[in-house]
Specification:
3 helices; alpha+beta; 4 strands; 4-stranded antiparallel beta sheet
Length: 124
């Protein structure tokens, strides 16, 4: 009797764990309406972190933040151009904000990503 109750409890725990796992996996993989969009979004987030890192390095060396063209010209940034995304930068004496704007065909893709000197990426 004790073994059968233990086995039933094991089945219940595995079922609950499976349910939680599928819910979390669903929230991670539903960026856009196709796998290519999910790959692009991941790449854009990596690009934003690389650009933000280049900005921070440039600031440490020069005491100011740079435009994207300055970062590219100096070789501080090696970010590819993405087909459906364009990057822009706003800099000031105290910080920066890098923006990636989406212009592709996927209506469910996030339209804007931003990163600032805190290295926090936001999307909307």
């Amino acid at each position: 009797m004790g073994r059968s109750i233990g086995f039933l409890m094991l089945i219940v725990v595995v079922a609950i764990g499976g349910y939680i796992y599928t819910r979390q996996a669903q929230s991670v993989t539903t960026v856009g309406s196709n796998p290519e969009t999910t790959i692009d979004v991941t790449a854009v987030r990596n690009d934003l972190l690389a650009i933000a890192g280049a900005e921070r390095n440039y600031f440490a060396s020069n005491g100011k933040y740079a435009t994207l063209d300055e970062l590219r010209t100096n070789g501080d940034m090696k970010v590819q151009n993405r087909l459906n995304y364009s990057y822009s930068a706003q800099t000031s004496d105290t910080g920066f904000k890098i923006t990636a704007d989406y212009s592709g065909p996927d209506p469910k893709a996030p339209k804007h990503f931003t990163v600032d000197e805190t290295m926090a990426i936001t999307s909307n």
